[in-house]
Write a structure and sequence with these properties.
Layout lengths: L1 H6 L1 H6 L1 H33 L9 H44 L6 H4 L2 H14 L1 H28 L1 H49 L1 H6 L3 H53 L8 H15 L1 H7 L1 H16 L19 E8 L9 E8 L4 E5 L6 H9 L6 E6 L2 E2 L11 E4 L10 H5 L8 H10 L3 H6 L17 H15 L3 E5 L7 H14 L4 E6 L10 E6 L2 E6 L1 H7 L1 H15 L1
């Protein structure tokens, strides 16, 4: 119940007017259908008596038309309102889930499986729309119809009303509880197998190349088919029970119609009821039962909803990142960065990713951070951006804790990483992500700064050239230059370069390094890299190993004092010449 209170009721309260209107319209729809069959039955019986004038059946004729039209109109508006509310709720749920995942972006791979997230975003949230459409609405409408039918029938015969209450209770209460009991295990098993299929599918897509290269493609396909067949077998059991239950309820409905018909005939024989109402009371049972039968399907889905809610709640519970209140920033022209004895350890790890780091970066200073993989360089970036908070020590940007800036930190710092994401739109639009208000002249200026303007102008569509998905229209070096142009347009005082030359050939790498130095000469730069190319233009060089600073100084100092640095620099120089 707590899961429903946390993830269902808040949205129900938010859209309570629309939901109540939908339930009311749904009830009126079934009542219109009931009155349609009631008046139709009466009209058939009355006309069979050959009335002297049509005026004697004029009111039933008009009533049949009225209820027929109102039934269709009410059903249309009810579906329109109901689906409108539910689609808004589903959209809100997806946005809320995104807001939960966003602060955990750095930890998603360690905390979640991609298949679980795909299942939550695509299957679970989509599945929860049935909570309203197929469970809440039919159940509330069914309970009202049950009460209304018994009360109206009691006006004519309270004893028979009690008998009908017991019979209708079988449809309204007994069968739903029986369905819930019979199908709970299969519902949960179905959700579990669907989740496994999502995980297997994502692993297969991500590892497709390795499956083919290793020659085990057929093995993977066989395994996937086996899981798919297992899931299909459970779904088949669910479908079989639903069809069986529907048949049983239809047979039971037929018996109820027969019971009501016999009662109406007896009442007419006793003189308590006009004979023309026998067909009316008999036929009105059908739409009432049509409103009660969906309750069984509504209740049996509860275990599946709980499984979906549990998975979504697990994602919410993993959101242990503290809420960050973004500071209001004006124009920031420079940044003074201080790390004071900073250490950080990832959750579940015994060793510190960075340890006892003390560092001050002056406005306009160029600092290179070198080290092998796992040395703590990427963690240092996260600390500077405030996306993680130090286990001990402080990280300050302009005398404020970096973590307090929230998303506003990106008004101070920009990041150019190994694979910047470029959208499947024009070059112009991709660059203008840095500043949506930038003019065409501004974009042309930054394109010229990164050395792309002449090349782009040589293309048939110029800046309006389509990038294609992830920027595949351009080479690796060109994609990095476009991303750099985006950063220059944003005009942040600090730029963090997270190994932007990885994967480029030496010539392209050298050209990009020269462009970076030239275009960022008036900014503070923190350059994370494996290579020593361009280090002679850096103000300070820091070597990290096992999360600690083991060596730092200028290029000239390290060349004179460190044999290790000299050897590494010579190797990089030789590789470029070759």
């Amino acid at each position: 119940m707590n899961l429903y209170q946390q993830h269902i009721l808040p949205y129900a309260r938010k859209y309570n007017k629309t939901i109540l209107s939908t339930i009311l319209l749904g009830t009126l729809t079934i009542l219109s259908a009931a009155m349609l069959t009631f008046t139709s039955g009466y009209l058939i019986s009355r006309t069979s008596e050959r009335p002297e004038t049509i005026l004697l059946v004029y009111i039933p004729i008009v009533a049949v038309r009225t209820f027929g039209i109102s039934r269709a109109a009410l059903r249309y508006v009810e579906r329109l309102l109901g689906h409108n509310a539910v689609l808004k709720i589903i959209a809100d749920m997806r946005v809320q889930l995104y807001h939960v995942l966003e602060p955990q972006a750095l930890f998603i791979r360690s905390r979640f499986q991609t298949g679980d997230l795909l299942g939550a975003l695509a299957d679970d949230i989509e599945h929860l729309q049935d909570v309203y459409i197929r469970t809440l609405f039919p159940t509330v409408i069914g309970l009202f119809l049950f009460s209304f039918s018994v009360i109206v029938l009691a006006v004519y015969d309270w004893k028979f009303a009690l008998i009908m209450a017991l019979l209708l209770a079988i449809v309204t209460f007994v069968y739903p509880m029986l369905s819930l009991y019979m199908m709970k295990k299969n519902q949960l098993q179905s959700k579990k197998l669907h989740s496994q299929l999502y995980n297997t599918m994502t692993e297969g897509i991500f590892g497709l190349r390795d499956w083919i290269i290793s020659g085990r493609k057929e093995q993977f396909l066989a395994s996937f088919k086996e899981e798919s067949h297992a899931s299909h077998a459970v779904d088949k059991k669910l479908a079989y029970w639903q069809q069986s239950r529907t048949m049983q309820l239809q047979i039971f409905s037929g018996l109820l119609v027969l019971v009501v018909g016999i009662w109406a005939g007896q009442q007419a024989a006793a003189g308590s009821l006009a004979p023309t109402y026998i067909a009316a009371f008999t036929l009105v049972t059908l739409p009432i039962l049509e409103g009660l039968i969906p309750v069984s399907f509504a209740i049996e889905r509860l275990p599946a909803y709980e499984a979906s809610l549990q998975r979504i709640d697990t994602i919410h519970q993993q959101n242990i990142a503290e809420e960050q209140i973004a500071m209001e920033l004006g124009s920031v022209d420079e940044a003074f960065i201080v790390l004071d004895n900073v250490s950080y350890r990832y959750e579940g790890q015994k060793e510190h990713a960075v340890q006892n780091i003390s560092l001050a970066i002056q406005p306009g200073e160029k600092v290179a951070v070198l080290g092998k993989s796992g040395a703590g360089k990427s963690t240092l970036i996260q600390l500077l951006l405030g996306t993680v908070q130090p286990t001990s020590g402080q990280v300050h940007v302009n005398e404020q804790s970096a973590s307090l800036y929230g998303d506003s930190i990106y008004e101070i710092m920009s990041v150019l990483n190994q694979k910047p994401y470029l959208f499947a739109t024009t070059v112009l639009n991709n660059i203008k992500l840095g500043d949506a208000s930038a003019t065409l002249k501004d974009v042309q200026l930054v394109a010229e700064q990164v050395g792309l303007y002449e090349y782009l102008e040589s293309l048939p569509e110029g800046l309006k050239t389509q990038m294609e998905e992830t920027g595949q229209r351009f080479s690796g070096g060109e994609r990095q230059r476009i991303a750099l142009a985006r950063i220059l347009l944003k005009q942040t005082p600090v730029v963090i370069l997270d190994e932007p030359t990885v994967g480029l050939d030496p010539v392209t790498e050298h050209s990009l390094v020269e462009t970076l130095h030239h275009s960022l000469e008036d900014k503070s730069v923190v350059w994370i890299t494996h290579h020593l190319m361009g280090m002679e233009k850096m103000d300070r060089i820091i070597f990290m190993d096992h999360g600690e600073i083991i060596m730092q100084g200028t290029h000239e100092q390290l060349l004179n004092e460190s044999e290790r640095y000299r050897n590494l620099y010579e190797l990089d120089t030789i590789s470029l010449k070759n």
